[in-house]
């Protein structure tokens, strides 16, 4: 089971980072390159514990759907989303937020299992793990920009 970890410092409090990370609209903005959009379950606003969202996007030239559910929720420190249905055999995505004196460390831990046994493992090794890491890093930079902007607006008001 591949595990991808990303860490990013954000100059904003954990509450803002946490909410940006669970925003349906910000998720769609951060995944514009794949045309990702929410089509069922929670389709706007901030996703909550026990809620699901079904995403539709194009990855590797193929339109795909994936449904994820929020299975853990401890605002503003952590939440977890897990795949209910989709292209992976499974995935477990933990979002952790740690306050510092001048902001927040955001850490993502994404564990997944590809379908198709050894063919899936080969795909992981050849391209999928790198693709997923790039996808998460890009998404996290959009979250960082949005959180820092929100914090700046809040401080200025």
From TrEMBL:
Organism in which the protein naturally occurs: Brevibacillus fluminis
Gene3D superfamilies noted in UniProt: 3.30.530.20
A UniProt-annotated Pfam family: Polyketide_cyc
SUPFAM superfamilies: Bet v1-like (SSF55961)
Coiled coil start-end: none
Superkingdom: Bacteria
Domain Coenzyme Q-binding protein COQ10 START: 49-119
GO biological process, one term: cell division
InterPro entries: COQ10_START, START-like_dom_sf
Alphabetized UniProt keyword annotations: Cell cycle, Cell division
UniProt-recorded name of the protein: Cell division protein
């Amino acid at each position: 089971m591949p595990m991808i970890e990303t860490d990013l410092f954000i100059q904003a409090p954990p509450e803002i980072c946490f909410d940006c990370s669970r925003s349906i609209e910000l998720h769609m903005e951060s995944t514009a390159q794949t045309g990702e959009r929410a089509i069922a379950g929670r389709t706007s606003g901030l996703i909550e514990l026990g809620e699901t969202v079904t995403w539709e996007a194009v990855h590797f030239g193929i339109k795909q759907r994936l449904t994820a559910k929020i299975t853990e929720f401890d605002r503003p420190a952590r939440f977890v989303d897990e795949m209910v249905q989709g292209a992976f055999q499974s995935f477990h995505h933990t979002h952790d937020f740690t306050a510092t004196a001048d902001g927040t460390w955001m850490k993502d831990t994404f564990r997944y299992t590809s379908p198709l046994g050894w063919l899936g493992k080969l795909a992981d090794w050849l391209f999928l793990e790198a693709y997923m890491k790039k996808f998460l890093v890009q998404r996290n930079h959009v979250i960082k920009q949005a959180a820092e902007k929100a914090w700046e607006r809040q401080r200025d008001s």
